[in-house]
User: Fold this.
Amino acid sequence: MTSEAGQSGKQKQQQLGQAISDFYQSRYEIAQQMAGEQGTDQPLPIVATGHLTAMGVQTSESVRDIYVGSLEAFPANHFPPADYIALGHIHRPQKVSKSDTIRYCGSPIPLSFDELRSQKQVLLVDVAPGEAARVTELPVPMFQPMAQLKGDLEEIAEQLEALETAGELPVWLTIEVSAQAYLNDLQQRIQALTADYNVEVLQLRRSRVQKSEQAGAEQRETLAELNPQDVFEQRLAREDFSSESEQERLQRLRISFAQVLGKSGITLMAMIRYWQNNSPVRPRR
Assistant:
């Protein structure tokens, strides 16, 4: 691609999509030529690969965007008519445009908790001259037990009791807590709930509804009711500091904030701007 002055975002998106399409088509034509030179009765099968996001696929939390602000997804009809197209980057196994020969195999293990709803697999593809590709799905067993728990503390306690935790490996958990009141000792409560089970909490967060209600309550507070320390602590409460490394980071943030507040005299309005922008708190000296 060549960047040109005055291009709109849509024009850049179209240019990038066309560049990828042209690349596939040119390589496919080279492959056709090479297949025809083999001297066989039937041309050899052509297999294409790609690391990209195809249009219409389901992503997961662990998938990161490849093209930022330029290309959301590549249309399936822009792929060449190869015998099989094996795609990567999307972690959920799935067909593209309901085609048996354009597929994401998916990751062989879950890379985020929201991938637990799909069976992990590898694909065995048989190709032969003059024949359609045959695809066999081979399921991958779950070697590491994982689970999602959602609800208030009572519901989470009930879900913990129903879990199978007698195995040798601890069950990795993500817990999303919904509560009518804001709990500033949430981590301690969860630790107490899980203490007697063979589990390991990897992710602890409040539900989105609770976060919205909490943000609304905070916005109704006036400047006269807040000091910089209040604003700082309320902003920290929106973050997830459940892991040991995040707890260490939390302590560093509090120490740095105390130092900055004492030396630089950060004003309340400056802290309010940090808070309202909803960006991670990074005090500057």
